Amino acid sequence: MKKIVEIKNLRKTFCKGDICVANSLNLDLIEGEIFTILGTSGSGKTTFLRMLAGLEKPDSGEISIDQEKVFSNNINLEPNKRKVAIVFQNYALLPHINVASNILFGSNASKEKLEVILEKTKLKGHEKKYPHELSGGQQQRVALARAIINKPKILLLDEPLSNIDTELRNILRTELKEMIREFNITALFITHDKEDAFFLSDRIAIMHGGDILQVGTAKELYNNPKTLYCASFLGKITKIDENSYIRPENIKISENGQIEGIVKENIFYGNFNEITIFANGQNLIVNSSDENLKVGDIVKLSFEDRIMKF
Ligand SMILES: Nc1ncnc2c1ncn2[C@@H]1O[C@H](COP(=O)(O)OP(=O)(O)OP(=O)(O)O)[C@@H](O)[C@H]1O
C-alpha cells in the first residue's frame, strides 16, 4: 500500500508557545483512502489541514506528499506546488462567474478536460449557470470539480457538510462519498461530526488538544477506544465500577441477569428506548427495545463482553 502523505513529528504552537495545536503529530495516509480527522472545536483540525496545504507554516517536523518532501527544516513548498486541493466549508464558489469558469479558476486545464469533469460530476448542461442558480448538491459538485481538475494527489475537505440541514446533509454526504470513490482520489476530511466521520471514512483519527489520540476504523475506535476521552467522544458510556465502562447497547435486561436494578427513567427515542436503571449503587444507562418498562420496575441485568477498562 502506497503512502500518499507522511507526517513526522509535526509541531505548531500559537501565541509564543501558549497554545500547542500540533503536538508532535505522526500520521500516514494510504493511497485511495478516505481519512477523517475528527475532533471538537479548537482541537487543532483546521491548523493541521492548513499545514498540509502549505497555508500555515509548522514550527518543526516533516511533511511528504506523494514521496516528495514539501516541508522540513529547510523546505517549505508553496501551496500550488504541493499537489493538494481544498474543498472549503460553504464551497467558496465565485458568485459572479459561471460554473465552467468556477471550475477552471486558477487552472490551465484544457476544454476537453473540463468536458470530462462536467460529465463525471453530472454538471453537463449547467456549465453556463451561476452559483446562485444551483442546488446545494450542484454547488458541492462544482467545488469538487474545481478541486479535482488539476489531479491533486490528495483532496482536503474542510467541514464541507457543516451548516447544512439534516435532510440535505444526508444526500450531500452520500453524493460526496460516491464522487470521491468515482475519482479514486485520496481524501482527508476534517469534521467535528462523529456521524459524518463514520459514514465517510475508511479510517479516522481522533484529535484533541493538538494530539492525535487514536487512529483506526470507526468500528475499531468505537469498540476498542484507548482512552476514556475517545470512548465517551464516540458514544455514550456508562460506568460499572472504578475503572470499567460499557456502552448502553451492551447491557442486557434479561430474566437470567445477575444484577438487580430499579428503573428510574424510560425514554422513547423511536428506534430504541434509553432506560436509566439504578443498580450496584449507581445509575446505568441501558438501550433496550422494551417500551413497557415503567419507573419503579425491578429488572435483572447482564453485561455483554465488551467492557472497556481505563
Ligand atoms: N492564527 C492563530 N493565532 C493564534 N491562535 C490560533 C490561530 N489559529 C488557531 N488558533 C488557535 O488554535 C487552536 C486550534 O484551532 P483550529 O482552528 O486548528 O481548531 P479546530 O479543531 O479546527 O477548531 P474549529 O472546528 O472550531 O475550526 C484554537 O485554540 C485556536 O484559537
Automatic annotation (TrEMBL):
<dbReference type="InterPro" id="IPR013611">
    <property type="entry name" value="Transp-assoc_OB_typ2"/>
</dbReference>
<dbReference type="GO" id="GO:0016887">
    <property type="term" value="F:ATP hydrolysis activity"/>
</dbReference>
<keyword id="KW-0472">Membrane</keyword>
<keyword id="KW-0408">Iron</keyword>
<dbReference type="GO" id="GO:0015697">
    <property type="term" value="P:quaternary ammonium group transport"/>
</dbReference>
<feature type="domain" description="ABC transporter">
    <location>
        <begin position="5"/>
        <end position="234"/>
    </location>
</feature>
<dbReference type="GO" id="GO:0015408">
    <property type="term" value="F:ABC-type ferric iron transporter activity"/>
</dbReference>
<dbReference type="InterPro" id="IPR050093">
    <property type="entry name" value="ABC_SmlMolc_Importer"/>
</dbReference>
<dbReference type="Pfam" id="PF00005">
    <property type="entry name" value="ABC_tran"/>
</dbReference>
<keyword id="KW-0547">Nucleotide-binding</keyword>
<dbReference type="InterPro" id="IPR015853">
    <property type="entry name" value="ABC_transpr_FbpC"/>
</dbReference>
<keyword id="KW-0067">ATP-binding</keyword>
<dbReference type="InterPro" id="IPR003439">
    <property type="entry name" value="ABC_transporter-like_ATP-bd"/>
</dbReference>
<dbReference type="GO" id="GO:0005524">
    <property type="term" value="F:ATP binding"/>
</dbReference>
<keyword id="KW-0406">Ion transport</keyword>
<dbReference type="InterPro" id="IPR027417">
    <property type="entry name" value="P-loop_NTPase"/>
</dbReference>
<keyword id="KW-0813">Transport</keyword>
<protein>
    <submittedName>
        <fullName>ABC transporter ATP-binding protein</fullName>
    </submittedName>
</protein>
<keyword id="KW-0410">Iron transport</keyword>
<keyword id="KW-1003">Cell membrane</keyword>
<dbReference type="Pfam" id="PF08402">
    <property type="entry name" value="TOBE_2"/>
</dbReference>
<dbReference type="InterPro" id="IPR008995">
    <property type="entry name" value="Mo/tungstate-bd_C_term_dom"/>
</dbReference>
<dbReference type="GO" id="GO:0043190">
    <property type="term" value="C:ATP-binding cassette (ABC) transporter complex"/>
</dbReference>
<dbReference type="InterPro" id="IPR017871">
    <property type="entry name" value="ABC_transporter-like_CS"/>
</dbReference>
<dbReference type="InterPro" id="IPR003593">
    <property type="entry name" value="AAA+_ATPase"/>
</dbReference>
